[in-house]
Automatic annotation (TrEMBL):
The keyword Nucleotide-binding does not apply. Belongs to the HMG-CoA reductase family. One of its GO terms (cellular component) is endoplasmic reticulum membrane. Keywords: Endoplasmic reticulum, Isoprene biosynthesis, Membrane, NADP, Oxidoreductase. Pfam families: HMG-CoA_red. Its main location: endoplasmic reticulum. It is found in: Endoplasmic reticulum membrane. GO terms for molecular function: hydroxymethylglutaryl-CoA reductase (NADPH) activity. Gene3D superfamilies: 3-hydroxy-3-methylglutaryl-coenzyme A Reductase, Chain A, domain 2, HMGR, N-terminal domain, Hydroxymethylglutaryl-CoA reductase, class I/II, NAD/NADP-binding domain. This is 3-hydroxy-3-methylglutaryl coenzyme A reductase.
Length: 377
């Protein structure tokens, strides 16, 4: 049809039955992405070998160096702040007054239990946590938040929302449902609502890196790191008008782990929202470093997580499939591991910049002297 060759794109030796009807339509092959291992990442007293699928030289090595710095300093600690996937339909009324009546109804605590029963019928795991509304004229945007077990949960929350909308039309028959998603969710695009309110898993991860480790492993010093973080990740990002981008390269680590473990790569947009903080502690000798990530959207069941390669990477982390004893704990642990890995990546890249090593290391590990096309053929 095109007159162009697909030579080099593998077709054989793939289980197409595992993707048809749920992962990809009209497949013509598959793209190979190398997977490297960073670690061990010592997080909350446990060690993790972190799979990263990437074609960017230096990324795995750099994250691995950050893991070493964390490990020899005693490890990192993570705290899960929130766990709630969101969906926000948009409905329209004849007047703004009528739209506001539904807003007040939805946000009245007296009505929550009834709405929760209707919502929760959609799944064994979906549990409504709250509804926040916003009005634009006579249009009402309703942001539903719910827990979704070990699934990332977009389909689950959407089903629950449909149940509630059908229920609401009994008392609000004049409600015109414009769309199940009105972008107040907000999915796969930068949005302040995710940065402020969170979406998916909200995690903060911290570590104290000892002075000698900063010098010997990271090849820099505490004062230089603190100054660089302030001027680059905080001030520089503010000058750039960043939205959730107060970090060095969180998206690098998030994307690599997302691809390796079968997550939705497009959700890297909001999942990479991150603010990196660095502060001198213990009389200025040691470094306290933290990453706060309010919207990590991950699951360990559904979508690409059930494919053989991605399932193997989840198994390596000990979070494959659903946790039957404690539903949701596998996906929450995966989010914490991602935050810990981002912490390691931030430490190493910031140190490379502070020490003036960034260009030199990329010239060494991120450039090929071979003609890759000839090697492949």
């Amino acid at each position: 049809m095109t007159g162009r060759s697909l030579q080099g794109l593998p077709l054989d030796d793939f289980d197409y039955d595992s993707i048809l009807g749920q992962c990809c339509e009209m497949p013509v092959g598959y793209v190979q992405i190398p997977v490297g291992i960073a670690g061990p990442l010592l997080l909350d007293g446990f060690e993790y070998s972190v799979p990263m699928a990437t074609t960017e030289g230096c990324l795995v090595a750099s994250t691995n160096r950050g893991c070493k710095a964390i490990y020899v300093s005693g490890g990192a600690t993570s705290i899960l702040l929130r766990d709630a996937m969101t969906r926000a339909p948009v409905v329209r009324f004849a007047t703004a007054k009528r739209a506001s009546e539904l807003k007040f109804f939805l946000e009245d605590p007296v009505n929550f239990d009834t709405l929760a029963v209707v919502f929760n019928r959609s799944s064994r795991f979906a549990r409504l946590q709250g509804i926040k509304c916003s009005i634009a004229g006579k249009n009402l945007y309703m942001r539903f938040s719910c827990s979704t077990g070990d699934a990332m949960g977009m389909n689950m929350v959407s089903k629950g929302v449909q149940n509630v909308l059908a229920f609401l039309q009994n008392d609000f028959p004049d409600m015109d449902i414009i769309g199940i998603s009105g972008n107040f969710c907000s999915d796969k695009k930068p949005a302040a609502v995710n940065w402020i309110e969170g979406r998916g898993k909200s995690v903060v991860c911290e570590a104290i890196i000892k002075e000698e480790v900063v010098k010997k492993v990271l090849k820099t010093n505490v004062a230089a790191l603190v100054e660089l973080n302030t001027l680059k990740n905080l001030t520089g990002s503010a000058i750039a008008g960043a939205l959730g981008g107060f970090n060095a390269h969180a998206g690098n680590i998030v994307s690599a782990i997302f691809i390796a473990t079968g997550q939705d790569p497009a959700q890297n947009v909001e999942s990479s929202h991150c603010i990196t903080m660095m502060e001198a502690v213990n009389d200025g000798r040691d470094l306290h470093v933290s990453v706060t990530m309010p919207s990590i959207e991950v699951g360990t069941v559904g979508g690409g997580t059930q494919l053989a390669s991605q399932s193997a990477c989840l198994n390596l982390l000990g979070v494959k499939g659903a946790n039957k004893e404690s539903p949701g704990s596998n996906s929450r642990l995966l989010a914490s591991i991602i935050a810990g890995s981002v912490l390691a990546g931030e430490l190493s890249l910031m140190s490379a910049i502070a020490a003036g090593q960034l260009v030199r290391s990329h010239m060494k590990y991120n450039r090929s002297s071979k003609d890759v096309s000839k090697v492949a053929s």
